[in-house]
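Sorry to interrupt, but I need a hand with the structure work. Could you write out one complete protein record for me, on any chain you like? Just paste the record in under my message, thanks.

. . .
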Amino acid sequence: MPEINWIAVVVAAVASFLLGGLWYSPALFGKVWQREAGLTDEQLKTGNMARIFGLSLLLAFLAAWNFANFLGPRPSVIFGTAVGASAGLLWVGASFGINYLFERKSFKLFAINAGYHTLQFAIFGLVLALLPCADCAQLPCPQ
């Protein structure tokens, strides 16, 4: 396994978590996502929100860590961002697409969720490429 820039992994996870908060907010796609997912306002108020948000952040951390292993220790900005967008769209998004076809879910729901994960992984790649590595302080890491 390659060396891991743990600070970059944490920053990438938090950045994707914040992106999700904006992406699924009423300011962007929240209401359309809610309607297409078949969720009422009352349903969204139920559940242990600390558990939901905590586990979501943990899963984002695990995804960022795994992507850091995939990219290697010092990806270029272009490579990290492009491979991230590709992974989000063509691995995560395509996998959602297969499920959504069989579950008869709408294209709008697919576009919202796949769009989020495309940007999420692009952000992972960007952050992992931009943050300095453990053995130097230059941005991006020149090694």
About this structure: DSSP finds six helices and no strands in the chain. Residues 77-103 form the longest helix (27 residues). Helices lie at 6-23, 30-37, 41-45, 49-71, 77-103, 107-130. The mean pLDDT is 92.
